[in-house]
Amino acid sequence: MQISVGLFIIKWKMILSAIVVLIAGKLAVMLAAGQMFGLSRLASLRSGMLLATGGEFAFVAFGEAVGKGVLPAALTSELYMVVALSMALVPYLAALGGKLGVLFERSDMKALQPQDSEVKELRNHVIIAGYGRVGQIIAQMLSELLIPFVALDVRSDRVSTGRAGDLPVYFGDAGSPAVLHSVGAERAACAVITLDTPGANYRSVWAMQKHFPHVKTYVRAHDINHGINLEKAGATVVVPETLEPSMQLAATVLLQFKLPPEEINTHLNNFRKKHLSELQALADLSGTTLGYLAPKKESRKEDATADDGDGTPVTAITVAAA
After folding, report:
1. What is the C-alpha separation between 288 and 276, in angstroms, rounded?
2. Lowest mean per-residue pLDDT among 178-182, 195-199, 297-301
3. Are 31 and 48 in contact (CB under 8 A)?
4. Which among 302, 291, 154 has a CA at the least distance from the CA of 216?
5. Residue bearing the bigger pLDDT, 48 or 291
6. Rounded to two decimals, what is the model's pTM?
7. Contact 261, 320 (CB under 8 A)
8. pLDDT tops 60 at residue 320
9. CB under 8 Å to 64, separation ≥6 — which residues?
10. Span 262-269, mean pLDDT?
11. 23: helix, strand or coil
12. What one-character DSSP code corresponds to residue 235?
C-alpha cells in the first residue's frame, strides 16, 4: 500500500469529505464524552481538537484488513490517504483549538463579571475580595443574616461554584479600581479582603484606600511584617490568619487530656493576652497598630469594652464540657 499524489488528484473531493467527516465525528464524540466525565466544555473542545484526526494504528489495522481480504486494496489506499492527511492537520487543529479556547474563555469570563443590572441597587453592602475558604465562610454567614454582599475572585472555578449556589460572586481583580467600582465600592459599608497572597491583599487594600477611602477595610495578615505593610497601605483592621484557628485546635487537643474546660479557657486567654501584648509592643515600635482588634484610636476610647482588666484586648474562645 502507498500514498499516491495521483490518487489524491483523482479522488480529492471524496478524500477531503472523508477528512471532514472523520474530524467532525471524533470531535462530537469527544465533546459529549468529555463533559460526561466531568470536563468543561472548553476542555472537551480543546481535547477533541487534538484527538480528532486519524492515528498510526489505522495503518496497521487497514493492512491487516487487506491481508485478510476484509477490505479491497483500492479502498484501503483511499483510507490511507484520509488518515495521513488528517494527521498532517494536527498542528493546525491544535492552534485552532487554542484560539477557540481563548474566545470561549473570554466569553465565559464576561458572563461571570458583574453586570450593572445586578449591582446598581446595592447600598451598604459588604465586598468580599477573595472567594476561597475564608471568603466562602464569610459569605455564608452574611447570607444567613441577610446582609447584602458581593464577592470577587480571579479563579473562574470558584466564581462558578458561587454562582451555582445563586450567590453574588463575580469574576474580577479586587486590586483594580474599575472592578471595585463595578461592584459599587463607593456605596459599600466595608470590604473584607481574604486573597491568597500577601501581594494581592496589599494591592486590594491600596486600591480601596486610594479610590474609596471612606470604606473600611478588614484584611487578614499572613505574618507580622505583612500586617504592618497592610496598615501602612490603609487597612482599617488587620486580623492574624493563624492565631484563633491555632487556639481552637489547641483547645481541642487539651480536651483530650481531660483538662477542665475552665482551666483550658484560662490557659488560652493567658496565651492570647501575652501574644497581643507582644503585638502591642511591636506596634508601638513600628508606629502602626497592627490592627488585630481595632485601630488604636478607637481602642483607647473603648477600653472598658475591649480589655480584660489589665489593658490587654481579649477575644474569648469558650470551651464547653463534652
Report:
1. 14
2. 297-301
3. yes
4. 291
5. 48
6. 0.56
7. yes
8. no
9. none
10. 87
11. helix
12. -
Which is higher by pLDDT, 36 or 321?
Answer: 36
Most confident of 7-21, 79-93, 123-137: 123-137
- One-letter identity of residue 126: V
What confidence category does residue 153 fall into, taking pLDDT thresholds of 50, 70 and 90?
very high
- The total of other beta-carbon atoms located within 10 Å of residue 73's CB is 10
Instruction: Identify which of 249, 255, 270, 248 has the alpha carbon closest to the alpha carbon of residue 321.
Output: 255
- Can you name the residues that pair with 307 across neighbouring β-strands? 313
Say if CB 301 and CB 241 are below 8 A apart. Answer: no
Closest to 31 measured CA to CA, from 45, 20, 42: 45
Hey, which residues does 174 pair with through a beta bridge?
none
Name which of 31, 33, 34 is nearest 23 in CA terms: 31
By C-alpha distance, which of 49, 57, 55, 54 is closest to 30?
49
Give dist(CA 322, CA 75) in Å, integer: 79
Confidence bin at 300 (pLDDT 50/70/90): very low
Q: Which three cell numbers stand for residue 236?
A: 482599617
User: What sign results for the dihedral spanned by CA atoms 138, 140, 146, 148?
Assistant: positive
Please write down the HEC assignment for all residues of 101-128. HHHHHHHHHHHHCCCHHHHCCCCCCEEE
- Helix (H) or strand (E) holding 60, with range, is helix 57-67
Ranking 111-125, 129-143, 189-203, 206-220 by mean pLDDT, the lowest is: 111-125
Greatest Cα pair distance in the chain: 98
Dihedral, 204, 209, 210, 212 alpha carbons, nearest 10: 100
Q: Give the SS3 label for residue 62.
A: helix
